[in-house]
Design a protein that fits this description.
The chain is built from 1 helix and 3 strands; from the N terminus they run E-E-H-E. By secondary structure, the chain is mainly β. The chain has one domain. The chain has a 3-stranded antiparallel sheet with strand order 1-2-3, with no helix packed on it. Strand 1 and strand 2 form a beta hairpin. The longest helix is centred in the middle third of the chain and has 7 residues. The chain is extended and about 45 Å long. The N and C termini lie far apart (38 Å).
């Protein structure tokens, strides 16, 4: 397991509202995991924006989640 931070941001130009969420925790590869949690995660539909194949699944087990919403 590896300690990680993952951030997701978005901005709506029409409304002038943005948001940011940060998750901190530990990451673990679940590509070949046979436990119900790993299997359920791998069953989710994921549509990446960047082209290319995806060979590995990584789960983040969060210890802290923070976020904010802001306006221009």
């Amino acid at each position: 397991m590896l300690r990680v931070a993952f951030e997701v941001d978005d901005w709506n130009a029409e409304t002038g509202v943005g948001w940011s969420v940060v998750i901190k925790g530990v990451a673990e590869e679940i590509t070949s995991g046979i436990d119900p949690f790993a299997m359920a995660l791998r069953g989710r539909l994921v549509v990446p924006l960047a082209p290319g194949s995806r060979e590995y699944w990584i789960a983040i087990y969060p210890s802290e989640i923070t976020g904010r919403r802001f306006r221009r």
